[in-house]
Design goal:
Helices cover about 40% and strands about 10% of the residues. The protein is built from 18 helices and 13 strands.
């Protein structure tokens, strides 16, 4: 800092010089002949305080009294973002998208569009180590998998392109030095926001603590549900324990917890209130992007009226109840039985439902197990269905419900809080244990001019689909306040 007494109006108290021209006894003058700062002017940082204005030789010592104004406060630089896309990269090996990788894709697309110069990507490699992925291959991979999923996932060539990009990312990660993500955090002058949309490696508490200790890192976690902690009987013992550990670590270590519904927020606070303390999860409902790839169904649609079940075949989805309903319908209606399309992969603890699908001859020709289908095919199926059937015992959000309403498809669903939160007064709600009520509703909705179905279609005109723009308005606001 250069101080000019004339231009800045600074007052100086100079020593009284005797006629001999020498200072009075006891006074001290700075020795300008000795250069304390050995750097050249060019190499000295502009605005830096010269070394002779330091504790070794302060400017206010001795007879010189020069009040020095402090440097104006500098605003802290914007926070850097580290986005975890581990689930998205691993999803490249699958031909059809799943829910959580689609959420990671939405996050990657948003931050690439809004904050590309402050964004970094990280992936959990094959050895369980977090590694930084260079932005260029990460962005190219994100664009490739988005095009592939939106294009209907029918091109084998496009799938191999996506898989090879993911494979190359893993090869590069294995060659990276140990601790590159910690070095990135340490090198930042300001804060770093580490965003995990997938919950994939939250069980690694020591890894996350190491990152937080490396610098000013704030952890932001998106929680999709805590059903394995609330209802462990619906899951394998190993998965329930792993997931519970992840949620405990999220409650202890996360600076911000994002959730998809008020129902998830309430259950999280109830289950992990001690670890959470005074923090309150922030509700940011997921956007519905199925309409972007809506098109004709790739499979041949049934000529008869048909219904759709959408989701992994697992106990809490309650497939068994609907299959029992279809057995009864077949006994009553014979060839006039409406068709049922079961969309979703086989999950865990579903032996009863799978046995009915595989071995019961009465269902053959009337119930079709479709497996996982591309988004475009699902959109086409929903648009022409009599209704989407969701008899779940529990859900974290119920994205299929929002997707069906977005496509204009009526919904018959369980009367559970999260479905009420998402669907409002539009769907028809039923007790998930009342088989007779589901039987009657299916018969009613299968009629060509069903009054109840037409009434729900009229209610659908008031439906407003949640958007990703609304979701990220909440997320960006939270990040700005961190």
């Amino acid at each position: 800092m250069v101080v000019s007494p004339v231009s800045s109006g600074l007052s100086m108290s100079l020593p009284i010089m005797p006629r001999s021209g020498h200072p009075q006894e006891g006074s001290r003058m700075p020795d300008f002949g000795q250069r304390t700062d050995t750097r050249s002017y060019r190499t000295r940082r502009r605005g830096a305080t010269p070394r002779w204005i330091t504790p070794e030789y302060p400017i206010n010592s001795g007879p010189w009294t020069v009040p020095v104004s402090p440097d104006p406060p500098q605003s802290s630089p914007p926070a850097r973002l580290i986005l975890d896309i581990s689930r998205l990269v691993y999803a490249a090996w699958s031909r059809t998208p799943k829910g959580i990788p689609r959420v990671e894709l939405a996050y990657a697309e948003h931050f690439l569009a809004s904050q590309p110069d402050r964004l970094h990507f990280t992936v959990l490699d094959a050895f369980g180590r977090l590694r930084i992925v260079n932005n260029r291959p990460a962005a190219a991979f994100t664009r490739a998998i988005a095009r592939y999923w939106e294009g209907g996932t029918t091109s084998i060539t496009a799938h191999w392109r996506v898989a090879l990009r993911a494979f190359w990312i893993h090869i590069v990660l294995m060659m990276r030095p140990w601790g590159d993500i910690e070095q990135l955090v340490t090198a930042q002058r300001g804060r770093v926001h580490y965003i995990i949309p997938s919950q994939l490696h939250l069980e690694r508490a020591s890894l996350i603590r190491k990152l937080k200790n490396a610098g000013d890192l704030k952890l932001v976690v998106f929680v999709h549900d805590i059903l394995p902690s609330l209802l462990p009987d619906y899951f394998t013992e190993e998965d329930a324990e792993l997931y519970h550990r992840r949620m405990e670590n999220a409650a202890r270590l996360a600076d911000i917890i994002l959730v998809n519904s008020e129902t998830t927020s309430d259950s999280f606070r109830t289950r992990f209130g001690d670890e959470l303390g005074s923090r309150i999860p922030v509700v940011a409902p997921l956007g519905v992007a199925l309409h972007r790839c809506a098109g004709p169904a790739a499979a041949v649609l049934p000529q008869q009226p048909y219904f759709v079940m959408l989701g992994t075949i697992e106990p809490r989805k309650n497939h068994k109840l609907i299959l029992d309903v279809w057995l009864e319908l077949h006994r009553e209606l014979g060839p006039s039985t409406p068709r049922l399309l079961v969309v979703g992969e086989r999950g865990w603890k579903s032996r009863d439902a799978i046995d009915l699908l595989e071995r019961n001859g009465a269902l053959h020709g009337f119930v079709e197990e479709c497996g996982r289908l591309p988004d475009a095919t699902v959109a086409g199926l929903l648009k022409d269905a009599c209704a989407l059937l969701l008899p779940s015992f529990a859900e974290g959000y119920g994205l299929p419900l929002a997707e069906a309403l977005t496509q204009g498809a009526p919904v018959l669903c369980s009367d559970i809080p999260v479905f009420r939160e998402v669907g409002g007064d539009i769907p028809d709600y039923l007790d998930p244990t009342d088989g007779l009520a589901w039987h009657a509703a299916v018969v009613e909705y299968a009629q060509p001019r069903s009054p109840k179905r037409e009434a729900q279609i009229r209610r659908l005109t008031s439906w407003s689909a949640p958007t990703w723009e609304q979701h990220f308005a909440v997320v960006d606001s939270v990040l700005r306040k961190l």
